[in-house]
Amino acid sequence: MTDARRRVPRTDMLLRDPRLAAAERTLGPTLIRRAVTEAQERVRAGELPPERAAEAAVAALPRSATTLRPVVNATGVLVHTNLGRAPLSPAAVEALLVASGTTDIEFDLTSTAARRARRGRGALAALAEAVPRAEAVHVVNNNAAALALVATALAGGREIVVSRGELVEIGDGFRLPELLESTGARLVEVGTTNRTHLADYARAIGPATGCVLKIHPSNFTTTGFVSSVPIAQLAGLDVPLIHDIGSGLLSPHPALPAEPDASTSLADGADLVTASGDKLLGGPQAGLLLGRRDLVERLRTHPLARALRVDKLTLAALEATLLGPQPPTRQALLTPTAALATRAATLVDRLTAGGVDADAHASEARIGGGGAPEVVLTSAAVALPAALAAPLRAGRPAVVGRLHGDRLLLDLRTVPEGEDTTLLAAILAAATPPAATEPTP
Ligand SMILES: *Cc1c(COP(=O)(O)O)cnc(C)c1O
């Protein structure tokens, strides 16, 4: 045994360090032991003197028990799937905390006999209230789950009629037609890539038809010699008409005139609308189902519904998103560009005073995976040297922007105003490499 190995401090001795003992109360034993083991390995490898093992373990402790790191989304992409889509409103965050303990999710506290109550009734009522056109509503894990449930319950072993122009790949190789077929439903494709007519649908409908599905192409547009059939016309066909609107707008939005919304779609004659909760609605990941009572009831009572049901955290955050203040994604849609330019100028002043090479830059923000691929939102950015991209990504919070030539643009449309101070501190920290500090003995 080498000298270093013999001198590796014992685990129980290291765990007696008061800093590690205190951290164990918040982080739990697994993460503390991991940090201790790593420090011991470093001593064993001769990288660390044994007397510094406890200190190294303390320094290596994670700040929280999740490996997820907070990120400032300065990409200018409002709904960024890789960054977790919609950030929740403060009211939704508060609701998560309330629901995180034991709660009356399925329990009637008003009845003297402890009785069972409808699961998530508050969230369902808020959703129904937001879309009065919907006779009934149901919530599942995400929009993909909503579509899987529709296909299974309404078209299992039967046919779904869908336009060839709407066979969409959403992202990460996820293709809606493959999802639909995985349920055992058969797709009957009608029309061509660029043009589909009402007669194409009418010809395809027969005794085996389970439903007609219209899918919003949320991440591409087609222009030129194109045509598709609007919901109002499809509503004349005598089969259930399902509309996947994708983005989750519940009513028309002034900034997104071409984006479909649930209220209009139902008014135009859709029998059922499916949508995501974490795109333009600005809430938690969820799949929203709204429409005809008999169809919603068939979905809700189908055995598969149990496998797709949402947890109490989702229901709490969804209700607060619907009833509470505008979530950040919705605010980002409406913030005047002049206000963003003012914030960019203020940040640039502070950064310049701090010796950072920064200037204000006009920018263009996008909706992203959430829909409206053609929409450009004018915006304002702080431009920094591209070399800061890596240190900003490595910071806490991490800051993710967009490279533009030799500059890194931090687009402020996707940064809530309240995060400017955090952003400023993160940039200053990234631009000022930490001085090589002597470890305290
Ligand atoms: C995003 C999207 C989906 C998938 O929704 P998830 O909530 O991510 O499962 C399905 N259809 C359309 C049109 C979409 O835009």
From TrEMBL:
Its EC number is 2.9.1.1. It is an enzyme of class 2 (transferase). It comes from the Bacteria. It is found in: Cytoplasm. Keywords: Cytoplasm, Protein biosynthesis, Pyridoxal phosphate, Selenium, Transferase. GO terms for molecular function: L-seryl-tRNA(Sec) selenium transferase activity. One of its GO terms (biological process) is conversion of seryl-tRNAsec to selenocys-tRNAsec. Converts seryl-tRNA(Sec) to selenocysteinyl-tRNA(Sec) required for selenoprotein biosynthesis. Residues 5-44 form the L-seryl-tRNA selenium transferase N-terminal domain. It catalyses: L-seryl-tRNA(Sec) + selenophosphate + H(+) = L-selenocysteinyl-tRNA(Sec) + phosphate. SUPFAM superfamilies: PLP-dependent transferases. PANTHER family: L-SERYL-TRNA(SEC) SELENIUM TRANSFERASE. GO terms for cellular component: cytoplasm. Belongs to the SelA family. Pathway: Aminoacyl-tRNA biosynthesis; selenocysteinyl-tRNA(Sec) biosynthesis; selenocysteinyl-tRNA(Sec) from L-seryl-tRNA(Sec) (bacterial route): step 1/1. This is L-seryl-tRNA(Sec) selenium transferase. The modification N6-(pyridoxal phosphate)lysine is found at residue 279. Its cofactor is pyridoxal 5'-phosphate. The keyword Metal-binding does not apply.
